[in-house]
Design a protein that fits this description.
Blueprint: H1 2-33, H2 37-49, H3 51-62, H4 67-91, E1 94-95, H5 98-118, E2 123-124, H6 126-149, H7 163-194, H8 199-211, H9 213-224, H10 228-253, E3 256-257, H11 262-281, E4 285-286, H12 288-305
Antiparallel strand pairs: 1-4, 2-3
Helix pairs in contact: 1-2, 1-7, 1-9, 2-9, 2-10, 3-4, 3-10, 4-8, 4-9, 4-10, 4-11, 4-12, 5-10, 5-11, 6-10, 7-8, 9-10
């Protein structure tokens, strides 16, 4: 038990420092290349912090255990919005980019709804996966075109380090986040089993939170540093990436089972995306009380699935 506690502590230290480096590196890259921070958040940061979900789901598909893919992705997407953005907003109100409200949040709600529609027959098939990947490619192309049309203003912040050092800082931060999340999940699961907790409880709590730890620490750190676009873009982009790329690629490897029990969770994921859109659409800002509503929403969901 003592060794596991030490490993858990080391994992959290890696997560905290890694998130700090990653956010600094990502914001520096955005400033140097004159790419809007929201685009960096929706692409590089989102894909980087979704590495654990992608690794778990794609590895499961390769090992003929694709049944865990939907639970991993849907559970993480719910947690990303209700817990991570909720907590980030409680720490510091987040100003939301108008383009995110008009474009990215409705798109997230749409792809979240597409998933249970595709899974109505109990499986995500090859044709479904191809559609998801095609949508992902189209979305990335659109973001790249937007970045070219609306370059960010140059900033003195982007002149602190050479570009190669900035890239190294971001890559090192991401590596520390992924390593820290792995250590944290493994040690937390070991502690939970030693304490006699059930596998179901471990899966619903520790594993779901564990694969979302990169998003959690990155978004909270970004919120604390005033980089709201990275905090919001990280979660919105991660959720889109999880559905379109991770499930899409998994379906190309093997048909992905969509159990009837996941329909409720998928509807909750759609409701969470719509809640985020409604919260941002009026004032284009995620305020502290709205963050508290999100946290309470996750607590209610958790009580319903126990």
């Amino acid at each position: 038990m003592f060794i596991q506690v030490i490993i858990l502590t080391a994992g959290f230290i890696l997560l905290v420092k890694g998130a700090d480096w990653f956010v600094d590196g990502a914001s520096e890259i955005a400033a140097k290349l004159r790419i809007p921070q929201i685009i960096i958040g929706l692409t590089i940061v989102a894909m980087g912090t979704s590495a654990p979900e992608a690794a778990v789901s794609i590895s499961a598909a390769l090992k003929d255990s694709a049944e865990i893919t939907i639970g991993n992705i849907v559970g993480s997407n719910i947690l990303n919005i209700l817990i991570i953005l909720g907590l980030s907003a409680v720490i510091a109100p987040l100003t939301v980019n108008p383009g995110t409200v008009r474009r990215d949040l409705p798109f997230l709600a749409a792809v979240s709804l597409l998933l249970p529609i595709q899974g109505q027959d109990g499986v995500i098939r090859l044709s479904d996966g191809l559609l998801l990947l095609a949508l992902f490619a189209a979305y990335l192309i659109y973001l790249l075109l937007q970045a070219k049309r609306q370059p960010a203003q140059d900033s003195a912040k982007g002149k602190k380090l050479p570009l190669w050092k900035t890239l190294l800082l971001a890559a090192g931060g991401l590596a520390a986040i992924v390593a820290g999340s792995s250590l944290t999940v493994d040690s937390a699961c070991a502690i939970a089993r030693l304490l006699g907790m059930s596998e179901r409880f471990i899966g619903l709590t520790i594993i779901a939170l564990g694969t979302s730890l990169p998003e959690l620490f990155t978004s909270v750190t970004a919120a604390r540093k005033g980089n709201a676009d990275i905090a919001i873009g990280n979660i919105v982009g991660s959720n889109i990436f999880n559905i379109l790329f991770v499930i899409g690629l998994s379906a190309l490897i093997t048909p992905v089972p969509f159990a009837a029990a996941f329909r409720f969770d998928s509807i909750v994921a759609v409701a969470a995306a719509l809640l985020l859109l409604v919260c941002c659409i009026s004032a284009q800002k995620l305020q502290r009380w709205q963050g508290l509503v999100m946290l309470c929403g996750y607590l209610l969901y958790f009580m319903m699935i126990l």
